[in-house]
């Protein structure tokens, strides 16, 4: 198995070399694209001329209504329902536990095939509800300020496991529309951010297929403008994000010199600041209405000086951008401290005066370790705690 420990981690995308036991049993329909669903139905003998209609029917039941039993699909003949139930399943990952923070943030620990665990976080706000989803178990990258980056175990999530996180939170929020009633207009789950565990661009196809399902107008129907993918800077995949998914892009920038960024975001050694900025300048969707978000974690005495702020605005000049300042979320044993509040405000001010929106992200769910960069599965934490005792 590849050693992905913090000290010796190679920068690698090679997570598929880690053996993965696939569950036996019927094909799970959750996570299949429309084309793959069509193929699956053709395989069990659904006649060619019915395929489109059947795909539409199943799609609406699964993704618009949230139905989990073929028996409930009342516009299908009973014999067909039985046939489907014999061949297929409609399954979501299992919720192992749910914690609710004093500020209303909900953190779900979710078990996926093979017994691995990932975390999913729901953040309610006055005008929206954002779901932060994971794309991998752990992360092959080892950003030195990120708790997920210290987790050894890594595998890519399947499209079903990615969209499954959205569906199981809709279950918990009771947000599937009831048959015959109008669709819920004010959504509790209105936005998705791919900012949980993992580097989404190292699991591109699966993330893409899952987000296509989330955006499909006949199903979960979230606008592409309400989905944000955050990358640490996997340069060769950045353009594909606009071309094949079309969602919003956020980049974990975090430093203004290669020397500091090499330490914070080691993928910088492979694609440095200049290469990353070139890719962002060429980003097909960047415009004033679809600005790229630059995420910048505020680490005391590391990247938070006035000089850093000035260098930052110089570096990104010409890119339609907003800068999201994230006060560092501490975790046990973390080698950094959060910048002082006055420092963060001063930094924000310099950026703002240079003409960029520079919101400071309010830390959410800190009491349940649900904030950005704190996610790490419970089994991994327990293992680590045992070792350090
Ligand atoms: N792997 C992707 C997405 C997941 S991380 C990426 O790195 O972009 C989501 C965001 O949280 C990133 O900007 C990441 O740099 C930031 N982050 C990680 N650890 C953090 C911490 N301890 N405090 C604050 N932000 C953190
Ligand atoms: Fe992975 Fe993102 Fe954490 Fe870096 S910040 S280790 S890329 S999850």
CATH architectural name of the largest domain: Alpha-Beta Barrel
Please tell me the overall pLDDT. 89
Provide the β-strand percentage band. Answer: 15-25%
Q: Note the overall shape.
A: elongated
Rg over CA atoms, rounded to whole Å, is: 22 Å
Write down the CATH class of the largest domain: Alpha Beta
SS content category: alpha/beta
How many strand elements?
13
Q: What does it look like?
A:
With 389 residues, the chain is an alpha/beta fold. The chain has two domains: 59 residues, DNA polymerase, domain 1 (Orthogonal Bundle); 295 residues, Aldolase class I (TIM Barrel, Alpha-Beta Barrel), CATH 3.20.20.70. Helices cover 31% and strands 16% of the residues. It has eleven helices and 13 strands. α5 links the parallel β9 and β10. The chain is elongated. The strands form three sheets. A nine-stranded mixed sheet has the order 3-4-5-6-9-10-11-12-13, covered by helices on one side. A two-stranded parallel sheet has the order 1-2. Strands 7-8 form a two-stranded antiparallel sheet. The protein binds S-adenosyl-L-homocysteine (SAH) and iron/sulfur cluster. S-adenosyl-L-homocysteine binds next to β10 and β12.
Which structural traits does this protein have?
single chain, two-stranded parallel ribbon, 11 helices, DNA polymerase, domain 1, nine-stranded mixed sheet, binds iron/sulfur cluster, 389 residues, TIM Barrel, disordered N terminus, binds S-adenosyl-L-homocysteine, alpha/beta, 2 domains
